[in-house]
Amino acid sequence: MFAVIKTGGKQYRVAAGDEIRIEKLEGAAGDTLDLGDVLMLGSDAGVTVGSPTVDGAQVIGELLDTNRARKIIVFKKRRRQNYRRTKGHRQWGTVVRIAEIVAPGEKAKTALKSTTAAPKAAEAPKAKAKAAPKAAAPKAAAPKAEKAPAKKAAAPKAAAADALTELTGVGPALATKLNEAGITTFAQIAAWTDADLDALSETITGLKAKAEKNDWINAAKALAK
Fold first, then answer.
1. Contact 167/189 with Cβ under 8 angstroms?
2. Which one, 90, 170, 183, 196, has least CB within 10 Å?
3. Quick check: 164 pLDDT over 90?
């Protein structure tokens, strides 16, 4: 006798003694389970097709193991978008052995059982005897709050930033780069040395050449007054 069953959204043709891998089922090794809807039964006497299932038919399987299948690689790519993603996936599954196929009107010889222990019922917490309220202890006198120390003198405010775009050849973009490098005032530019220009040129390309061409140091000295 054979049967067609449906479990985990898939159909399987099985016979007694077959070992099949199906979608993951809850249970432990040694459990005997009802494997779901029976869509068709076949034997020497003929074939019975359900509508959609065969009433009274049952397929019982013994759970052997629950594990993960071999890894598959999932690769996604979008052309001309510099998009590539690679992931691995291992699907969970259950291996079962078909113990018995029960036709309509017959009684199953294999009993359904589960080896997983049922959780113990939570014990109700014992009611604690109410203790007599204790006499409130006299409150200790709160210590007087100490006077807060006098506020420290405020630190002098940093010098306001100058409009560096007043220098010839300095646009808004270059002024922003100078500000990010810590140059915000004409006084700082007026104090530049060759070493300072070389250091700034490493982060701002062509700065030294522009500064020398437009004589920023002397112009900054005049604007800083």
1. yes
2. 90
3. no
